[in-house]
Design brief:
This protein is mainly alpha-helical and 999 residues long. Helices cover 59% and strands 5% of the residues. Helix 31 packs antiparallel against helix 32 (651-674).
């Protein structure tokens, strides 16, 4: 290869004749190849296909009548150079048109009028119609002077001239990067205006060919033409309206379609009423009658882009004005949202399987995904927000983002991907001016390279230009599909579409009446909350205005709508600066639905939520095949909590961190409880695991912070009561014992003093005032109770239990479990107390009698004054104490012989007793049902009231809320829940009386 040939190859010219052609054209920097590439050659090199551009340029130069002027312009006019060479290397069809009409090169220069300027007048003049006269199709309209084949040829040439100018300006920045880039939105709008002009010219010709007065006819553009977003090559969808709609206007409409079809583009009237089977032309009343009685959902979606473009302007405007109310009320139709979604799925089903991954328009992640999502959101929310009523996809998407119906980031990403896909579509169609939406096949490297260069892509250092195109296509298709699924299948859409139009934007009078009818005890107070949430012109207020009609419907189905709305206001105000909060409620339908159920039922949830808002994200619908985010492994949660707290060096910061993480987990568990995601056993285990992790982490931080050299003692924390049995509720204290052991020769007194300091510090830090449910570490079950020392050595415990232990202490030790501190010391403590709590020979009758006596005294003395023994969850008949004492009596009597009874769990103890034959299966089930019912009810009281309580409400909304928290219908009769509770605990009590009391 010669040196010149090598230089040409680097410029992208590979054909054998390239060197001689360039030399003949005189496109080098000087007069000879050795003088290098000048501006023309560099523009040629940047053309999408330099060889193609050079061949076309050679033909064009031979055809231009004023070669000297052409050559001068090419050398001196950067705009002309960029437009011409990019066009010649991009479109064989437009290059052929320019070569056929070589004088048109003047229209590509910098001094020529910009594209689109006077395009309508140019097309009308081309067929001899008066651009300034009344439009054809109206009374007294101006017909064309050309008819037949002559008119069609003139219109075709004029139309292709305008497309040539627009395409050259669109491509100019490819050949000369310094030139401005035409936005794809502007190109599409100019093409739509050009199509409208062509229809006007075709109508003028059709009127001239009509021998009699055809009456009034208006041409309504639909689809992309109506939306001002047409492609270079596309069918133009239209609907015809006429007065009268007779044979003459029908013949006129048919001629318009034929003339425009032969000259410019295919005209498609299949979007008319009844489609292909319907009459081509209808009167305005005929259209309205059909749309009101027979139209399907897709027809209203199509009407969203209806725009008069030709013919009688008054008739066209009347049509647009008449159908608009029908369009913007269409979403109130039954199954509207589902119909639109089903239609999109049907479109995808008709794509050839081998084209799915290359289909820019109809495939997954293609243009239709953007358009369908935007149109659905427009039709649902545009009923009340006129700013959304643009027929343009990009303008509507911007309005949706501005109004808060779509997240700003989502809207920007969707718009960017849509522009990218439209750019590829435009470039593909320009190549041969054919209608196509299909990317070249993956192995068609030449065409892929041409497309990438035509779309202004360049290698990025890691990939060649084909690789860049493939990556960009994959990225944008994936992004569009993800956002389409997020927006198009948003559950909130269906709810909004079903609301009466007057409730989507609430007037005060209507709101008060509706709130009262929906069950608000104080409609005026609720209205005050609504004003506070929706006042102003902020984006948040706009989103609230969209959300609240739906949220109010959900709240109305909750037990406490008044408290729920107040809670929602508190949460919204607390999270006002949290950017994702309202977006999450808007985009994730289940989050909004679940949140309203929680706020309208529980006082505890909103208190926790304002300080742990991140839990809201866990309310989203789980992905297919995945577990609900509200379910988590307690062991993993505990490990994460301990690791997080361990990173804090300051004990106060460590305690605060532990409380914060406990708050998060308590809220997660509360949500899972109220939503029926977690069972009662899972709830107890989760809450207990969190409490244990908090104790462990706080103890470790306190021990780490105490100065003075090596500690003189080991310290272990023994969980007792519900903590030891892993059966904690939301408001449970942590019953513990502290046991220590001297190390390295330290004296017992020194060890106890150190351990007591640590234990008191742990209790104090955890009990520090904070708005969360209290973290009380209760050591009253220690030997000698409150009057005894807080901490004892292991040997001290051994001596005490050997000499002074009473039956109730042995019973209390049945729930003992090492939960924190030195693990070996904890194990040895449990081993030491095993003979006490699991006596080898059981207990004698006197001890049984004593335990029964203590139980009777507890029931009599500790039941609060005025409490209802049938509905007290702890000390009531068949409640928690009844079942737990029964299990513990069986353990004291038989655990020495039956190892399976040696468990701290009540339910496991019942199962073991049943398997050992100590209880019948029926009795065990009755006791388990009573314990489970009482535990759930006790938790429900805490969730509903926000504070611990053992007594079920007697009536009213609180009882209804407790029943709802127990998964009973929120709008049902709470008496059913009370009956179930009493029946279940009554049966459990009957077993207690036989097994525990021996009656």
């Amino acid at each position: 290869m010669t040196r010149t040939g090598s230089s040409l190859a680097r410029l992208g010219l590979t054909e054998p004749r390239a060197e001689s052609t360039v030399t003949e054209l005189g496109w080098w920097a000087g007069d000879k190849p050795a003088e290098g590439a000048g501006p023309i050659m560099w523009a040629l090199a940047r053309s999408p296909d330099p060889d193609l551009a050079l061949r076309a340029a050679e033909r064009l130069v031979q055809a231009v009548p004023d070669r000297a002027d052409f050559d001068a312009a090419l050398r001196t006019d950067q705009v002309f150079r960029g437009r011409l060479l990019a066009l010649l290397g991009s479109s064989t069809a437009l290059a052929d048109h320019l070569i056929t009409h070589p004088d048109r090169w003047h229209r590509l220069t910098a001094s020529a009028p910009p594209p689109g300027a006077a395009a309508t007048a140019a097309l009308l003049r081309a067929v001899g119609a008066d651009p300034d006269g009344p439009p054809a199709g109206a009374a007294g309209g101006s017909p064309a002077t050309l008819t037949g084949a002559e008119a069609i040829t003139a219109l075709r040439t004029a139309y292709r001239d305008e497309v040539l100018v627009l395409a050259a300006a669109d491509l100019a920045a490819v050949g000369e990067p310094e030139l401005p880039v035409l936005d794809v939105e502007d190109v599409a709008a100019q093409l739509a205006d050009l199509a409208a002009a062509a229809l006007q010219a075709a109508l003028a010709v059709a009127v001239a060919e009509t021998e009699v007065d055809p009456g009034r006819l208006a041409v309504i553009s639909m689809g992309k033409t109506g939306g001002h977003e047409l492609n270079y090559v596309s069918d133009v969808d239209v609907v015809f309206v006429a007065e009268p709609a007779d044979q003459q206007t029908t013949r006129l409409a048919s001629r318009v379609m034929r003339i425009a079809g032969e000259a410019c583009f295919q005209v498609d009237a299949n979007l008319r009423p009844e489609g292909r089977q319907g009459t081509l032309v209808r009167t305005l009343d005929g259209h309205l009658s059909y749309y009101k009685r027979w139209a399907k959902t897709w027809e209203f979606q199509a009407l969203l882009k209806a725009r008069p473009v030709a013919g009688d302007p008054e008739l066209g405007a009347a049509y647009a004005e008449a159908v608009a109310p029908l369009v913007w009320s269409a979403s109130e139709r039954d199954d509207f949202v589902a119909d639109v979604q089903a239609m999109r799925r049907r479109v995808e089903e008709h794509i050839r399987p081998d084209h799915t991954d290359r289909e820019i328009k109809l495939g997954p992640g293609g243009l239709r995904d953007v358009e369908f999502a935007v149109q659905l959101l427009q039709l649902v929310h545009g009923r009340t927000d006129e700013s959304l009523r643009s027929p343009s996809t990009l303008q509507a998407l911007a309005a949706l983002a501005d109004g808060g119906y779509v997240g700003r980031e989502d809207g920007a990403n969707l718009a960017a991907s849509y522009r990218f896909l439209r750019l590829l579509e435009h470039r593909l169609q320009l190549q041969r001016m054919r209608r196509t939406h299909l990317l070249p096949a993956p192995d068609d490297t030449d065409n892929l390279r041409w497309l990438a260069r035509a779309a202004r892509m360049r290698p990025d250092g890691r990939r060649d230009v084909v690789g860049v195109l493939a990556a960009e296509w994959a990225h944008n298709a994936h992004r569009v599909r993800r956002l389409h699924e997020k927006l198009f299948y948003r559950p909130l859409l269906t709810a909004v579409s079903r609301l009466p139009v007057d409730s989507v934007r609430l007037s005060e009078q209507a709101a008060v009446a509706r709130l009262g009818a929906l069950g608000w005890a104080s409609p005026e107070g609720a209205l005050g909350h609504l004003r506070a949430l929706t006042s102003g012109v902020s984006r948040a207020a706009s989103i609230q205005q969209t959300l609240l009609p739906v949220l109010l419907g959900e709240l109305a189905r909750s037990p406490e709508p008044d408290r729920g709305l107040l809670a929602y206001r508190r949460v919204s105000e607390a999270l006002a600066t949290t950017p994702w909060y309202l977006r999450l409620l808007r985009d994730e339908g289940q989050v909004a639905e679940r949140l309203m159920r929680l706020l309208g039922t529980s006082a505890l949830v909103p208190d926790l939520l304002v300080r742990a808002p991140e839990v809201l994200r866990l309310l989203a619908s789980p992905a297919a095949g995945q577990a609900d985010e509200l379910r988590r492994d307690p062991a993993e949660v505990a490990a994460s909590l301990r690791a997080t707290v361990a990173r804090q060096n300051d004990p106060d910061a460590a305690a605060a961190s532990a409380r914060s993480l406990r708050r998060h987990e308590m809220l997660r568990v509360a949500c899972g409880d109220l939503l029926g995601v977690l069972s009662v056993e899972e709830i107890c285990v989760a809450l207990s695991a969190v409490w244990v992790a908090v104790l462990q982490a706080t103890l470790e931080s306190v021990e780490k912070a105490i100065d003075g050299g090596p500690p003189p003692a080991r310290l272990a924390v023994i969980g007792m009561g519900r903590l030891g049995g892993a059966e904690l509720g939301y408001g449970s204290d942590a019953d513990v014992l502290f046991v220590c052991e001297p190390v390295d020769g330290a004296e017992d007194r020194e060890a106890v003093r150190y351990a007591t300091t640590v234990a008191e510090t742990v209790r104090r830090r955890l009990a520090a005032p904070n708005p969360d449910p209290a973290l009380v570490v209760d050591a009253d079950l220690r030997p000698e109770g409150r009057s005894g020392p807080l901490v004892r050595t292991l040997e001290s415990y051994r001596n005490y239990y050997a000499r002074w232990s009473e039956p109730w202490e042995a019973q209390a030790l049945l729930r003992a479990s090492a939960v924190a501190g030195d693990e070996d010391l904890g194990r040895r403590f449990l081993h030491m107390v095993d003979p006490i709590r699991y006596p080898a020979d059981g207990i004698d009758q006197a001890t049984v009698t004593e335990i029964r006596r203590i139980k009777a005294r507890v029931d009599a003395e500790r039941l609060p004054r005025g409490a209802d023994r049938t509905t007290h969850t702890k000390l009531g008949l068949g409640g928690l104490a009844d079942v737990e004492w029964t299990v513990q009596l069986l353990q004291l009597q038989h655990a020495g012989d039956i190892p399976e009874l040696r468990t701290t769990s009540t339910l496991e103890g019942l199962r073991a007793a049943s398997q050992a034959g100590l209880l019948s299966a029926e009795d065990a089930n009755e006791l388990a049902a009573g314990w489970t019912m009482a535990t759930r009810a006790r938790n429900a009281v805490m969730l509903v009231k926000g504070k611990p309580g053992d007594q079920l409400p007697r009536s009213g909304r609180e009882l209804l809320a407790v029943a709802a928290a127990m998964s009973y219908p929120a709008d049902g009769d709470p008496g059913i829940f009370l009956d179930d509770y009493r029946r279940t605990t009554r049966r459990a009590r009957a077993v207690v009386e036989r097994v525990f009391y021996g009656w």
